[in-house]
Amino acid sequence: MTPLVFGQITIDWPLAVHSFWPILQGGLIYTIPLTIISFVFGLTLAMVLAIMRLSKVKFIQTIARIYISIIRGTPLLVQLAIIFYGLPDLTIEVSPFVGAVIALSMNVGGYAAETIRASILSVPKGQWEAGYTIGMNDAQVMRRIILPQAARVSIPPLSNEFISLVKDTSLASTITVTELFRRAQEITATSYDFLLLYSEAALIYWIFCFVLSIIQGRIESRLDRYVTTH
Description:
mainly alpha
């Protein structure tokens, strides 16, 4: 196959074909697992922080507030650099992938905590009272009554957070994680066809996010039907 020429733009079709799978492979082997693992840990952290923010103990509230403020007030790129390049100064060394998981999880936790907190607060106070009347304590009411209802409210924004996380994993390339964008950079280093390869990486990111958006839409539709029938 010969390169395709469109005006002043030349598309190296053979390069595009041969580079597509290595870039996609970086996405399947690193980007998607990195996204899922970081989101699961981040969501767990977010749940703890949300409950801390709702605590009646002022000191616990303050700790959660400070953490969320720091995470939301600093760039993810800086957080990645601190985890991967800064911790070795404290004799704590982590692999690039583990460092990326830690930084991304901490970031998700800081942002998703406020989403979960708002979802919990959206549940009518009467639900708490209903739980108390049947003999439940605070933890039981939260686990059995409040959280299931809050989940319906929080799923749409948390789904958006998950999709954004897919794109945020590209920053892991700065600490040498060979994810999707890093693979594109490696191929570009030998071919110097920046426009083609970075556009190809962008296309794969878009495909991932498009598929996730479809899944998100179906989940929300099912939730809407569930809410209307119960």
